Amino acid sequence: MKTYIAVLTIILCTCVQAHWQVVQQWPAPTSPHYEPTWESLDQRPIPQWYQEAKFGIFLHWGLFSVPAVKAWLWYLWKGPNPEMDIVQYMQDNYPPDWTYADFGPLFKAEFFDPYLWADIFNASGARYVVLTSKHHEGFCMWPSKYSWNWNSMDVGPNRDLVGDLASAIRAKTNLKFGLYHSLFEFFNPLYLADKKNSFTTQDFVRSKTMPELYELVNRYKPEVVWSDGDWEADSKYWNSTNFLSWLYNDSPVKDTVVTNDRWGSDTNCKHGGFFTCNDKYNPGTVQKHKFEDATIMDKYGWSYRDQVKASDINTMDELTQLLAEVVSCGGNLLLNVGPTKEGRIAAIFEERLRQMGQWLGVNGEAIYATTPWIRANDTVTPGVWYTSKKSDSGDTDVYAIVLDWPQNDTLTLGVPGIAAGTKVSMLGYSRPVSFTRNPQGQMVVNMPVIPFYQMPCDYAWALKLQGLANA
Fold this sequence. Notes:
Immunoglobulin-like; disordered N terminus; alpha-L-fucosidase
């Protein structure tokens, strides 16, 4: 018996050892490898976190925040086709020998509190933040090795603004941190020389653009790389595909980073990650490709303006409408605010952001992690936008975001199909919502009569439609 057990043990051990040797020979799972071609790069899926985020904050901040007129002030002042109102403004407010570089020492950011910013952004309900690391003026908001004496450590604040905000965001919130970066610079001599050579030379790209991008990614690990300033030259000049191949394959954020489509004059709305197509891109219909609407809180400027008036700021009615429209069509909203030269978020911007957070606190279920439904908006009643989401049971719940409370408290919806088990409720309101079917077969919702002090929100209301026939 002992001999039998010993033999059996030897056989068993031999089999286990042989099996382990086979297992060790199996190839380990590998991530997809992306070649430096658009055909390959365009196969990379948009990371899930970005698909579900829906709402982000954009920050245009730089030397242009000092004159507080326009982000393009330098170009509109000294470019080939100057705007006379900008020229006149500079003549009226600065000495005759003033240069754009003279704004550097005045950009002190002395009241910049990144932890306060993080608190505001977290309260807004946003899921990511994108800061301008360098705009077209070329001033770097971090101590770049490739920007001597033209960055926030050498001039002005004497601090690493990118690093300070990244640290605060990651320490105090769960928001993703991203960076905007301009490929070109208005008046950089190397860029102008390449341009004069019809972009057959790449001195600016090799010595400035690409070193900065690699430095930003390796140092700050942004999970959004928002490229801009691409329109004068194609992606071959910018070496964009080589950078993106490294970003997706080997960078420290290769599995989570998301990019946009501004990598050359040939890529906008065609190649890259999510599409921006143009500023304030709100297509109004469901899109096949993920997109982002980068738009402004101040209707007349990306950067902070000293002349801003309360009436220039988007109202909450306008912002909730914009968010509902963009998300219903499959996009994300990237809402821009411009900090002041001192490093403050203006009180009216802070108020709007906190109001957005309050609205999303009630209605976020209809926004976050949703997908477009069979139609973006209703066919009968204007101002009703649809989103959808899989429930825990596997059914599809549909959300109708109603921008305007209907007259007589009666809302007619043309798209939802009524079934025996259909239920209607309102987010933030605990009681069921009744409905009927009219002679045309349309759903007629009896909006509940709610005292103003019990209203779930003040701007737009989300109805949850469960068990629809056409969900």
